[in-house]
Design goal:
With 416 residues, chain A is of the alpha+beta class. Chain A folds into 2 domains: 189 residues, no CATH class; 199 residues, no CATH class. Chain A has 14 helices and 12 strands. A 6-stranded mixed β-barrel of chain A has the order 2-3-8-5-7-6. Chain A has a two-stranded antiparallel sheet with strand order 11-12. In chain A, a hairpin with a 2-residue loop joins strand 2 and strand 3. Chain A is elongated. Chain B has one domain: Rossmann fold, CATH 3.40.50. Chain B has a 6-stranded mixed beta sheet with strand order 6-7-8-3-9-10, with helices on both faces. The chains are: A alpha+beta (416), B alpha/beta (256). Chains A and B meet through helix 1, helix 11, helix 12 and helix 14 of A and helix 2 and helix 3 of B. The structure holds adenosine-5'-triphosphate and magnesium ion.
Chain lengths: 416, 256
């Protein structure tokens, strides 16, 4: 039997029980369309996360006290996690030792409740210097930034995140007002623009001078230089010098911390590129997970095909006998049943791709619980899904087809 | 009576030598064919009779290359068939013979035409057009020119059996095997089918082997072989054929 004849025979066999073929197809359609839709959602999430991180600026480098410090502490050795100080940050501004560093913005943190009149809200407190806003790509909506004079004077001034301002002052302009954070009075000097939707949302942040945060909010002691910082934000001179800047930072900090050649860093440097890679990695796992869950439904669809083909072989035993008696070879029967299975899964695959694309197309921009879903449609996924559905047909169709082909013609003819 | 070739000595169509066919059921062995030796020449028309279970169908399945002997030799048109592979048997079925069944064995959802086309689909070298042309010719030969597009359910038993005969004829084999072709038919339809087979023998020179329970059918053949317990108990030439031979053709059928 040649290929066209084989396919037309298979098609007409499928056509004799349209409802059954339709239901079998449905299993594959659901499987393939969910793979397509899930992958589109997964890819969409991945792309938008990457885009949001890139919003922060790709020149950003962050230094934190390193995990190695924890290890020493664990073994009872010296060292603690407060290894980054304001003096470290100042040293990184050195043009000779760190030529590729453009901007250094140390920060520390505190937490507490902000109270104004009858309103109060929990704030995410950040002690900063004037450079912080630029490093974090944030901007002032009204009023002014924290100045380095504020830092020197240990002033009780605060720049509010958009949401805190909304909660405490509603529509009024808070600039100039006095509020209490953890019982201390602060004058509001500015309000930040809303950054809703970014990874590091500052809308709940309250920014105060880093010195005020240390001495007043965290009850710290010591000289200004010894103020410990939770992280240092650094901008490289350009996107291309990020790696150089990273080396600069590492060299300066290792010198300052007097680390020997055989000692590990006691700080952790992260570039935006690292963050993107890590997150893309996790997201990749997420996409694969989504895909596999959807793949399981494709598998179930395949089992449905196998089930129907087995039933079909039993029902059509006599037909098989007739075909064999008039000259069909075993492989003619084998190919016919495989062709039927593959035609069904291939047809289901094509429909599934169309349905999946439709879901992805109309799902793009839809909001679920306030989160905007983004989808990215990739053609190669469709081809993979089609190839997989053909493979599913082959895999699940072979066994029933082998059963059909191995029937003895005489017994098959005797079958009622 | 026509032969394959006018110049050479015609080889027998069928030559069985000490053929046995055993079926093992548990520890019990059924000897369905118990040493059959038989020669059927080109152009013969043979009836096989015998009680139920005597091995008639087993013999036909062997002759039809659907089954193989347990021992002995089966030579079909000069070719030793015993020991052929499954594929080679399929080829032989496809090219050397046509088989007519008691229960017609038509594909229920296909039209008469496409049922008759079926054997051609499994042998290369036919275009869709030539397939249909051959199928029409075969259906015309059995007087079913008006029934091309009818499905089995829309035809009488006699008509269905004639579709079955057309399917056996479509590749123009020299040998037609029929296992109780009239078993499911009333007297009138039986008569038509038997006349059809006789005409194929008388007019087209085909070798015909028919299994039957009907003594009248048997007497309409030229030779009768009786079976019992897997053995041939009688083999005779019919000298006094009762039924007149009518040349069964399209015209007489169409004018009915
Ligand atoms: N596949 C088989 N397995 C086991 N035994 C079989 C098989 N086919 C036939 N037989 C046995 O072989 C013997 C001959 O069977 P066969 O079908 O050839 O008889 P038959 O002469 O055609 O009978 P009937 O006139 O009833 O059709 C019987 O005893 C039958 O039970
Ligand atoms: Mg029988």
């Amino acid at each position: 039997m040649n290929l066209t004849l084989l396919l037309s025979t298979a098609l007409s066999s499928i056509g004799t029980n349209k409802l059954r073929a339709g239901l079998t197809l449905l299993g594959i359609v659901i499987g393939v369309s969910s793979v397509i839709a899930m992958m589109a959602v997964g890819r969409g999430a991945q792309v938008s996360v990457t885009a949001r991180i890139s919003d922060l600026g790709t020149e950003l480098i962050t230094v934190r006290p390193g995990a190695q410090a924890l290890r020493f502490a664990f073994f009872g050795g010296g060292g603690n996690s407060d290894v980054l100080s304001l003096a470290d940050a100042l040293a990184l501004q050195d043009d000779v030792f760190a030529p590729d560093v453009r901007l250094v913005a140390p920060e520390n943190s505190f937490s507490g409740a902000a109270v104004f009149g009858a309103e109060n809200t929990f704030v995410n407190g950040v002690g900063i210097t004037a450079e912080y806003l630029e490093a974090r790509n944030l901007s002032i909506a009204s009023g002014r930034n924290i100045s380095n004079t504020d830092v020197q004077n240990i002033s009780n001034v605060v720049v509010l995140g958009f949401e805190i301002s909304e909660t405490l002052f509603a529509q009024r302009n808070p600039v100039g007002a006095t509020l209490k954070i953890s019982g201390r009075e602060f004058t509001v000097v500015g309000v930040m623009e809303s950054q809703e939707g970014t990874i590091f949302n500052p809308d709940n942040s309250a920014l105060i001078p880093i010195t005020t945060a240390h001495y007043r909010m965290n009850n710290g002691k010591g000289l200004v230089d010894s103020i410990s910082v939770s992280s240092i934000n650094i901008l490289a001179t350009s996107e291309d010098t990020v790696d150089h800047a990273r080396t600069d930072v590492s060299t300066v900090l290792r010198l300052r911390h007097e680390l020997g050649a055989d000692e590990d860093d006691d700080f952790l440097i992260t570039t935006q590129q690292d963050t993107i890679e890590t997150l893309e990695g996790t997201q990749g796992t997420f996409v694969i997970l989504l895909g596999s869950i959807a793949g399981i439904s494709l598998l179930v669809g395949g089992i449905g095909v196998m089930n129907i083909m087995l039933v079909s072989v039993t029902e059509r035993t006599r037909e098989i006998g007739i075909r064999r008696a008039v000259g069909a070879k075993r492989r003619d029967i084998l190919f016919q049943f495989v062709a039927e299975a593959v035609l069904m899964t291939f047809g289901g695959g094509i429909l599934g791709v169309l349905v999946g694309w439709t879901i992805a197309y109309f799902g793009d921009g839809a909001s679920v619980d306030g989160d905007i879903i983004e989808t990215v449609i990739e053609t190669h996924i469709a081809f993979i899904a089609l190839a997989v559905s053909v493979a599913v047909g082959l895999f699940f169709g072979i066994y029933p087809a082998v059963r059909a082909a191995s029937l003895n013609p005489i017994e098959a003819l005797r079958h009622e | 009576m026509t032969t394959n070739s006018l110049n050479s000595v015609p080889v027998p169509v069928i030559e069985l030598t000490e053929v046995t066919r055993n079926f093992q059921i548990g520890t019990h062995v059924v000897k369905a064919l118990d040493g059959i030796s038989l020669t059927i020449e080109q152009g013969e028309m043979v009836a096989i009779i015998g009680p139920s279970g005597s091995g008639k169908s087993t013999l036909m399945n062997t002759l039809g290359c659907l089954d193989q002997p347990s021992s002995g030799r089966f030579v079909l048109n000069g070719q030793d068939v015993s020991g052929l592979s499954d594929n080679q048997l399929a080829e032989t079925r496809s090219h050397q013979l046509g088989f007519v069944f008691q229960s017609y064995n038509l594909l229920p959802r296909e039209t008469a035409l496409s049922n008759v086309e079926l054997p051609l689909k499994y042998s290369g070298g036919y275009s869709g057009k030539s397939r249909r042309a051959a199928a029409r010719t075969a259906l015309d030969r059995v007087g079913l020119s008006e029934r091309y597009d009818h499905r089995p359910m829309q035809m009488s038993g006699g008509e269905q059996q004639r579709v079955g005969i057309a399917r056996a004829l479509v590749k123009n084999p020299d040998l037609i095997l029929a296992d109780e072709p009239t078993g499911n038919l009333d007297t009138k339809s039986s008569g038509e089918v038997i006349e059809m087979l006789r005409s194929l023998n008388e007019v087209d020179g085909k070798t015909i082997v028919v299994v039957t329970h009907d003594p009248e059918v048997a007497e309409a053949m030229k030779r009768v072989i009786a079976f019992r317990d897997g053995r041939i108990v009688e083999d005779r030439i019919v000298t006094d054929r009762a039924t007149p031979i009518t040349d069964y053709n399209v015209d007489s059928e169409a004018s009915e």
